Amino acid sequence: MGYDAESLVAAIRALGAVIAQRRTELTQLDQEIGDGDHGENLARGFSAVLTKLRSTEPETPAKVMALVATTLISTVGGASGPLFGTAFLRGSTVLGGAAELDGALVAAGLVAARDGVVARGKAELGDKTMVDALSPAADAATKAAEAGADVAGVLAAAAEAAAAGAAATAPLQARKGRASYLGERSIGHVDPGAQSTAYILESLAASAASHATGTAV
Amino acid sequence: MGYDAESLVAAIRALGAVIAQRRTELTQLDQEIGDGDHGENLARGFSAVLTKLRSTEPETPAKVMALVATTLISTVGGASGPLFGTAFLRGSTVLGGAAELDGALVAAGLVAARDGVVARGKAELGDKTMVDALSPAADAATKAAEAGADVAGVLAAAAEAAAAGAAATAPLQARKGRASYLGERSIGHVDPGAQSTAYILESLAASAASHATGTAV
Amino acid sequence: MKKIINDPATVVDEALDGVAAAHADLLTLHRNPTYVTRAGAPIAGKVALVSGGGSGHEPLHVGYVGEGMLDAAVPGAVFTSPTPDQILDATKAVDGGAGVLHIVKNYTGDVLNFEMAAELAEAEGLRVSAVVVDDDVAVQDSTWTAGRRGVGGTVLLEKIAGAAAARGDDLDAVTAIAQRVNSQVRSMGMALRACTVPHSGEPSFNLAEDEMEIGIGIHGEPGRETRKLAPADEIVEILLSTIVEDLPFASGDRTLLFVNGMGGTPEVELYLAYNSARKYLHGKGIEVERSLVGNYITALEMQGMSITLLKLDDEFVELWDAPVHTVALRRGL
Amino acid sequence: MKKIINDPATVVDEALDGVAAAHADLLTLHRNPTYVTRAGAPIAGKVALVSGGGSGHEPLHVGYVGEGMLDAAVPGAVFTSPTPDQILDATKAVDGGAGVLHIVKNYTGDVLNFEMAAELAEAEGLRVSAVVVDDDVAVQDSTWTAGRRGVGGTVLLEKIAGAAAARGDDLDAVTAIAQRVNSQVRSMGMALRACTVPHSGEPSFNLAEDEMEIGIGIHGEPGRETRKLAPADEIVEILLSTIVEDLPFASGDRTLLFVNGMGGTPEVELYLAYNSARKYLHGKGIEVERSLVGNYITALEMQGMSITLLKLDDEFVELWDAPVHTVALRRGL
Ligand SMILES: Nc1ncnc2c1ncn2[C@@H]1O[C@H](COP(=O)(O)OP(=O)(O)O)[C@@H](O)[C@H]1O
Ligand SMILES: Nc1ncnc2c1ncn2[C@@H]1O[C@H](COP(=O)(O)OP(=O)(O)O)[C@@H](O)[C@H]1O
Ligand SMILES: [Mg+2]
Ligand SMILES: [Mg+2]
Ligand SMILES: [Mg+2]
Ligand SMILES: [Mg+2]
């Protein structure tokens, strides 16, 4: 069974549950070096996504991604709304009319997502933002796809790299986003957007893995 | 040596020191059932009295009392300013042109002070106000004077009665002043104005006693 | 104690210097004794309005000095009524020959000091009348007690009586309108957190994280009752039901709804409470025709609010809508 | 958490209902998506001003919607910027054919969401320009970082640019004036106590009883530095010396001095700080020609203040003094 729109919708539903679960944790991270709303913002956005998915059945993976993108853009606000929105939107564009995903498409989607976030937010690697999780994830995904990995394999590689990238933001001094106002006081805390990026990829990877093994998500 | 204007000025100076010392305690009493400024109010007033006494030498006890009265009225504010001011003013009137005080004059002064406070504030015995200290003090002073007591004796009797009266305000429910807003919650606290009245008479009594024995105040 | 001050003893004086400097076009600050008069005072032939009381309730009263409202305000120390000599001098400074109305909040200290000042002013030949505001339904009223406190209703009364004086009413008429406002207005307040008076340095009462104080005054006094913290709708109902039953307000009544912050309450909570109050009144058929929402009579940084309801008639509406130009209320000028 | 609310999720919506009900003569509240427009919008031929940002800064921005200031305000969730669809719809609703100026505080979220909205609006054929306010000297500026935050200067900019639009300036001219205000204004803030965001329920940072936070923003972010609490004069000097050196302001400069409360600071402290600030500036030969003191851009119930200094010229003074009629600022109307 291929990884089609229905599979992706199931994965997004599971992701929505993960975000709801991580809400408090992400908000606490944001309270340390931001304004304490990151978990709240994403939870609001993904709860709207779940609501929309109850009444719509997008036909292609690209349309699933576009639905997530526009919903996040119109409900999240803050810095992460336009950035995650852009990420899903660019990913959607890359997928085109494909009925099913494969490893190469997923990797290309992640690269486009990363490029979109960088273009919009102008953060570079090491600025202590979601880019520090998303960029290594896109690179690892590309490598895995080139080595012939399938959807689950590519997402697993991306998730692992994102988790490492997020963890590695702790010692950095922020140069973008609210945390940058703290100067040196931003050092020693994990960036909330990098952490949420890692959780998103972890959830998507887990869904793909159980899809591959036929386990219910 | 009789109890003349100079003796009274010395007593008022000592009283000023006592009030400064009791400031925090009186304010705390007022915080429990009032607005937490009684000690502050009296300290401000008596510090102004002490300042005035540095540049003026009133010739008669009545003029000493009048100086205290007008200074308190123009610097204390709150409920206690006009009330203590009225008390000293009425006391002053009773003393007339006398060069020296005696027991009977002191008692008459205290009665006039009590009547003035009651006329101005319209509180009755048991309303949990300074009247509950001042009224028994005036009665005890009258009794002592009738029994032939001197200034020190009359003031000692007044101070003792005032202290007992102040202590007896604790179980009462306030019907006048700010404490009345608390209704039943005013029960269990000593009234700050009754307590300060007791301290004032205690200080005046102590000064008179040391004056009588020739001890420096 | 967490305050932006230099010295507890000079807080009021320094703040008044600031007010005078920031609003030199509207106000003049007088010293020895301290009081504040409006630009152009005295206004010949106009009844003058003088109010005052302890400081710490800002913008009350200094913020209401100006065209269409007060002619003078007399600030005391924090939460302590001013002294008769201040009130007397303010009264003399603004008397324009048509007499002076003293607007006094019903606290023993305010009443006694204004009374003494009025006696002294009358002895000097001035005409002085007084209205004592006592709109706080949290306090049980009785002829045997100090009676109810003057709270939020004071702001509305100063505006309406000020407009009556501005349109040329004589002293008896202005006094009568002020008394009519007082008879038609009721208030009640609550707190989430007490304030700290600068010279004391300690919160004036203590509440647990899940408690609120119902029936507070504006001087940091504890209220009538400590309750478990409740949702806004429930808080509003506790306050408004007492207010509505007291006057009483009835279905069909026209009202001015005034939701007042105690100084440390964010606007978002005040407007939320206002919204809740409107709904409550709507449910009772009581019409909200005019509104005031914000920090207008405060208790330093106390967190909490009071609700005031004034029964309106055409004259009150006209006077409420009349032009006013003060630091804290401005309209049409 | 001590708040007068019903449910953290509905705080902003309920408060907006209250604002709309209390000020129906001035404002219209739109839903799905949420934004607020001034009465009479769109005004044909007038450049329209749209601002917005997270809620919790009241009266900013909704309180500045009205004649002579903003045409629309777009409120987000508490401390969270609004979304592009809200901004887009507000922009379309108030465009009177002369173009729309977006006034954006420099926070990544605000900038990105306004950018997206502007792209969408331009795609629909509207003319949109933007000014990004970044007046907070507490933040080190650099092309490599997110740059400085927009804080108190925003209020002054909205008033002055609003007056320019009201007198008929075209989009380029209004934009240029807005940019000129931004280039001449500097701010810095401090806190005694943090605020609590309703959905979090916990104070956004913790300070000991003898500590203050210097260089805070308006979203409950911790500041640059925690210091021992100091007297008002010292606090004012810390803030003003940084501000004065930054522009720099020099002897002989004409200024507007704006002392702003963060929401939980009593007025008496704000005016005391204002007085202290005036003295400091006087000592440097800097003239205070206009003033604003009060809660104008807040962070919920945070205790603290910010100081903003704007260098004035004749045009700024004229535009500052021009009539305005909004909930929070009113003059000459
Ligand atoms: N310029 C940027 N580029 C990429 N990511 C950014 C940028 N600015 C902020 N972020 C990300 O956004 C996260 C914060 O998101 P969120 O808290 O939802 O928004 P806000 O900061 O507006 O409150 C940060 O942790 C960071 O990862
Ligand atoms: N009507 C009254 N008659 C007599 N004494 C009164 C009356 N009202 C108040 N008091 C006294 O005044 C005291 C409070 O004084 P103070 O705290 O200085 O003034 P305020 O209550 O205005 O803050 C009370 O403790 C009480 O003894
Ligand atoms: Mg955030
Ligand atoms: Mg007291
Ligand atoms: Mg007092
Ligand atoms: Mg945010």
UniProtKB/TrEMBL annotation, chains A, B:
Q: Which SMART domains match?
A: Dak2
Tell me which GO cellular component terms the UniProt record holds.
Answer: cytosol
Highest taxon listed in the record's lineage? Bacteria
Which InterPro entries does the annotation name? Answer: DhaK_L_YcgS, DhaL_dom, DhaL_dom_sf, Dihydroxyacetone_Kinase
Keywords (alphabetical) are: Kinase, Transferase
Describe the location of the DhaL domain by residue ranges: 6-206
The alphabetized list of GO BP terms reads: glycerol catabolic process
Transport found in the keyword field: no
Q: PANTHER family from the entry?
A: TRIOKINASE/FMN CYCLASE, TRIOKINASE_FMN CYCLASE
Its protein name is Dihydroxyacetone kinase DhaL subunit
State the organism of origin: Nakamurella panacisegetis
UniProtKB/TrEMBL annotation, chains C, D:
Give the reactions, separated by semicolons, that this protein catalyses. dihydroxyacetone + phosphoenolpyruvate = dihydroxyacetone phosphate + pyruvate
Pfam families for this protein: Dak1
Q: Which GO terms describe its biological process?
A: glycerol catabolic process
**One cellular component (GO) term of this entry:** cytosol
Name of the top EC class for this enzyme: transferase
Its pathway is:
Polyol metabolism; glycerol degradation
Q: Which Gene3D superfamilies does the annotation name?
A: Dihydroxyacetone kinase, domain 1, Dihydroxyacetone kinase, domain 2
Q: What is its EC number?
A: 2.7.1.121
Q: Which UniProt keywords apply?
A: Glycerol metabolism, Kinase, Transferase
Q: What is this protein called?
A: phosphoenolpyruvate--glycerone phosphotransferase
